[in-house]
Specification:
The protein has ten helices and 29 strands. The chain is an alpha+beta fold and about 550 residues long. Strand 15 and strand 16 form a beta hairpin. The chain starts with a helix and ends with a strand.
Length: about 550
Amino acid sequence: METRAAKGRRWTIIVLAMLGLAGMGDVRAQTIEQGLLQLEWGDPARPAPGQARLQPRFNAHLVKDDGSRIVLDAAQARLAAGDLYVLANRRVAVAFAAQGRVMSSAPAIQAIVPADRVTQSAPVHPANARVMAAAPVGGNTRWVTLMCKFSDIDAEQKNKAFFDSQYGEAVGQLGHYWREVSYNKIDLTGSSAYGWFTLPQPRSHYVTQENGKDKADLRKLFADCGAAADATVDFNSVQGVNMMFNGNLDGYAWGGGSCAPLEGRTNFCTRVTWNPPWSFSNLAPLAHEMGHGYGLPHSDNSDGDDDTYDNPWDVMSDGWANAVGDATYGTRPKHINMFQRHRLNWVDTARQRVIALGDLATRDIALDYAHLPTSGDVQMLVLSLSPQADPYATIVYTLEARRRQGAYENALAGDAVIIHRVERSGTAYSVDADVPAANRANNEGSMFKVGERWVTPEGSHVVTVKAQTATGFVLSIGPPRVMSSPLPALVRTTPVTSSSASSPVVTPASGNGVRAMPPARCSSAHTGNSRAAVCTLRER
């Protein structure tokens, strides 16, 4: 009988061949390892005024069946997987270069492919040959909170009743939030808190110095915190563990997945977050780390810097700006963008619309507000661009409508159509029409409003915001007109200082308050690893 390992290896070779990766060499000559892909995101505390924010941290490991771990180079892993984040918390096979083929002490990663055959939600556009969604997350996702204090710190900032209430179904609590964000696709029913448990060691045992910087040993923290609670908590019945520590860690809160010897098992693996007091006192960073637990990556804006926390349209980027405050739970989380929702299979097919490259029709499309749970129209509009030889290098644009309304979205920068550019590894970058792009995407350039027009950088699609309705916006989508002079890249309305969130608004596309900008002069430029068109105004 064929062993599990042999079946896995055979399946891996088949997948590699299907992806065209076997051409890099004889797959049988490579080292192929299988196990659970664990990703850990480290998110720094909000900096004090005048202070620079710490850089985010990211770890990737392959946890083998015997419990041993292989550290994966993050840059190589992202390239080898195409979209690494869709494989978080899943069984994968990693193909390393054969010995002697690389001039490095660590083997190069050639490919990472799923080995679990988990059904994924359909790609946005199959013709792009691009995986654009993670394994679906649905139904009950019960989390437990473990309150653990270092042996040398006595403080207990919050009590069990507070942590239990965080999971509640009332407005502003996590149970209510995740139901709303997922369109009722998931719930936190049965989630509860336990502790405080005293860790066997002081903080200095878990947080040490490495190259002059604090480094938290996430594995030790989970192992010891979990062991302290093992007699009390049935971990087999949970899908995630939120750990709350009574002292700071390494300046970061963490989220992703981890393993520990729990429930009599050598390797109990699940979603895990590690939260210092500044994180668990505010629901926004806690929801951010839980999002990492579900496998969601960061979002970003388009200013080209290395700060991923400057897109305030998504709690998976900037959870602090344009956020609603709560007297009990601190900063509330805003929603995640539509592409992040799609990754977890929360956007029904009927709510998606794809405009393929080469589609020459001009059509009006009603784009409903993203927060509406029972929308009857499109909520995620996708513009396909030219397919690349490497399918993961193909860029698509997603459009969604946002409104300052509700318990979590009422402090957004405005009511507008928000556009995201989705690139390799599934990172979504909010588009900014201003040149240069603003440092934080809560400016007018990031919000497309009635009367404004936007053209994809390669000139394949023209988007015009025609009207705002009670449930969203009406967009006109079509190819660019054939003309002898350059097409205006943007028509911008007079800035609006306030808007009504309580009554339906219907605004025509023409009339007072609309001014046309002069034709744009476009040139190519590099932003990070992407190539985009940069348009500047040309004086008449």
